[in-house]
Amino acid sequence: MRIRRVPLAAIQEGAIVDGPPLVEADLAYQVDNMEGIGVHRNAQGETVLTLVSDDNFSPIQRSLLLQFTLVE
Fold first, then answer.
1. How would you class 7 by CB atoms within 10 Å of its CB: exposed for 0-12, middle for 13-18, buried for 19 or more?
2. 3-state secondary structure (DSSP) of residue 60
3. CA angle 43, 41, 72 (to 5 degrees)
4. Phi, psi of 58 (to 5 degrees)
5. What is the pLDDT of residues 1-60, one digit of tens each?
6. Is the CA virtual torsion 23, 29, 32, 37 positive or negative?
7. Which segments of 2-53 are extended strands (E)?
8. What backbone phi and psi angles, to 5 degrees, belong to 22?
9. What are the CA-CA distances from residue 54 to residues 34, 35, 58, 69, 72 (Å)?
10. How far from 49 is each of 16, 32, 42, 56, 59, CA to CA, in Å?
11. pLDDT for res 51
């Protein structure tokens, strides 16, 4: 899993975008396939990322809810 910060102005039809990674995790962190992301600002004005995955009815996967606050 890799989450990158991309400037809003860079998102246009046909654009190829890239940005610095905010989070990188793989099976070494017991994270595999994240399927949803939400972003909001909390009462302190901090940006909070919430990630979700499900186990796909597989005994080798887990349902996860991860939450990170970005540190500027």
1. exposed
2. coil
3. 105
4. -105, 135
5. 889 999 999 999 999 999 999 888 877 767 767 889 999 999 999 999 999 988 888 888
6. negative
7. 2-4, 21-24, 36-41, 47-53
8. -95, -35
9. 8, 8, 9, 22, 30
10. 23, 17, 10, 22, 27
11. 93
Measure the CA dihedral 24/72/14/39, to 10°.
80
Residue type, 1: M
For 2, the token pair is 């890799």
pTM greater than 0.90 (yes/no) = no
Q: How far is CA 56 from CA 21, 60, 71, in A?
A: 27, 9, 32
